[in-house]
Protein: Dehydrogenase/reductase 7
Amino acid sequence: MSWELLLWLLALCALLALVVQLLRFLRADGDLTLLWAEWQGRRPEWELTDMVVWVTGASSGIGEELVYQLSKLGVSLVLSARRVQELERVKRRCLENNNLKDKDILVLPLDLTDRSSHEAATKMVLQEFGKIDILVNNAGRSQRSLFVETSLDVFKELIELNYLGTLSLTMCVLPHIIERKQGKIVTVNSLLGIISAPLSSGYCASKHALRGFFNCLRTELATYPGIVVSNICPGPVQSNIVKNALSEEVTKSVGIDVAQSHKMATSRCVRLMLISMANDLKEVWIADHPFLLITYLWQYMPTWAWWLTNILGKKRIENFKKGLDADASYFKTWKTKHD
Structure:
């Protein structure tokens, strides 16, 4: 075989590999590292059994679905949120549908903004189960309002809940994890912790802060290879996050049901989260197109991303002022949703 033919074959293989990657990307609902882990990586059913997992924000949305899927893996669960009745409902459903017993699930009401209660809550978990293998920082709140129309109290609340509350609980749990030299700290961030979008300035600020903090913490813990710090960054997911989002005043939420058809199924998002946790991925992006594409542009082609964001941002504000979901009317589903 001549060198010229060999070079042509190598070029053809490279082109074919590029085409395959492009086709994979067009069908992707997560970053390519995450989807590779789903295909070839470790299974949650193998890696996450017999663990103690503490989930905040467990009363609804992603947190609730995460609890249901974790309960099928035979883990011990700590369910935290402010609404005790909702936590009890989630616990009952876990007990009805799986082999867990009452002693395997601890309902632990928790307000992240009440930072003085976090140390006692941590001690209660350790007293009940003796260890914490995984802390899932999921609790948080979104925002839908223009900056110039929004009270400063809204920004204080978002920072207190999404950022400082999460840091406080992590600070209480981390010494135990360091003592054991193993454990996972998983934070449900957002694509808006990577990119930015109008109507969510306070939410974006809190999520950017979280991403920066946990990236720093991961580096500080580099001498503990058994400790994993993960940022989970979902895009739009079917939940009540917009309905419960803060508006112009801290006492006012959006309060209306919005279209969900363009958003990813919560079950699919949580399955990819479990894949990430099983494979110790440091950061993952979970979203359908075009949200995923826009995130890649922000990461690798920021100039183009700014141009596109300015165009879409104007439409987002128009939709909001008309009482529509900010994204639904111009972000169309590019592929069939996963169940």
